[in-house]
Amino acid sequence: MELTPRLQDILNIIKNKGEINVQDIALILKVSPKTAKGYIRELSRLGFVSVSEEGVVKLVIRTDDPIEKLTKIIEIHEGEIEMLRKQVEELRQELQKLKRKGK
């Protein structure tokens, strides 16, 4: 299953921070806390994150099933790679536009 770019962004944030609360995610993404909770709820439903009673969000990587663990890691990285590919393509297009203007 391919995650939306927004959900990929949230996974990247959590991966980089280790753990983060829902309010901080909302601030980083510039969305309401309610919207951030919806994103986190979806990631939790899909098994990517867990949320403590205090609202602390962490990545979930189960160690009991190594295949599932690797699959989740691959899904996260595939999402990151796809996002980077899109950004590279956008930069190429922007560079071509700048080159045309310079001629």
Automatic annotation (TrEMBL):
State the source organism's domain of life: Archaea
- Pfam families in alphabetical order: HTH_11
The answer to whether keyword Phosphoprotein applies is no
Per its UniProt record, what PROSITE patterns does this chain match? HTH_ARSR_2
Which Gene Ontology terms cover its molecular function? DNA-binding transcription factor activity
**Which keywords appear in this protein's UniProt record, sorted alphabetically?**
Coiled coil
List the coiled-coil residues: 67-101
Annotated ranges, domain HTH arsR-type: 1-82
Keyword Coiled coil tagged = yes
Q: What is this protein called?
A: HTH arsR-type domain-containing protein
